[in-house]
Prior knowledge:
Blueprint: H1 6-20, E1 30-34, H2 37-43, E2 54-55, E3 67-71, H3 84-87, E4 88-93, E5 99-105, H4 116-129, E6 136-140, H5 143-148, H6 156-166, H7 170-173, E7 179-181, H8 189-199, E8 204-207, E9 211-216, H9 219-241, H10 252-262
Parallel strand pairs: 7-8
Antiparallel strand pairs: 1-3, 1-6, 2-5, 3-4, 4-5, 6-9, 8-9
Helix pairs in contact: 4-8, 6-9
Amino acid sequence: MDYNIKFVKDFIQLAANGYEQNWHERNGGNLSYRLKEEEVEDITQYCNFNSDYQSIGTSVPKLAGEYFMVTGSGKFFKNVVLDPEDNTCIIQIDDKGENYRILWGLKNGGRPTSELPTHLMNHEIKKITTDNKHRVIYHCHPTNIIALTFVLPLDYKIFTRELWEMATECPVVFPSGVGIVDWMVPGGRDIAVATSKLMDKFDAVIWAHHGLFCSGEDFNIAFGLAHTIEKSAEILLKVLSMGGNKLQTITPQNFRDLAVDFKVSLPEEFLFEK
């Protein structure tokens, strides 16, 4: 594989950036990217098209025939930059959207991330709702976001409003808010369905006591979304650790004024008086 191909280089860079943020302990977290047609042409020479198909564990018919670069199950994010061919893979979905085959990567054996059903179901809904623009799904374990899921009600309206108040850029970066999935066993179809339903409305979904899923048009946008949310969560935890008594904050009307100047639409459901 030519690691100077842009999407490959960007994939590796995001993995390195996420590890540097301390969001990927051991084999925690996963990343996937849906290739563009011209990018498929760049990598076909490296692919083995004789590999066998395996079940995804769910059905994603809108992704039939699509190609993805994905981190491997049990692989460490810190090792992606050291040996991409051992820690990542390129897969293709079959013509029904029910199976995948590994075309490149995982040279020492293995399979794509255990969260593959969630990734692919998220990709499918985002392909539909963003007119084919979103291509990156990123799952990480940010410390402060996870901590908040133990002390805040698992209510997307409360989480969104609290995060928005911590930094002025937040309602601009994620104007649709954040979704919340109550704790569920990861890796299966049930949590994939729950997450994809929320991805219809949000670009970021928090898994209680576990981590964060973000969707974006490219690697910078997806990583930047996660980074912004986690920094806001860090500020909130510091405020709470000082007693949580805010002497001043950003008001609902302040948010409305911000929306006008930055030309974003902020749902009124988040602008309630406290």
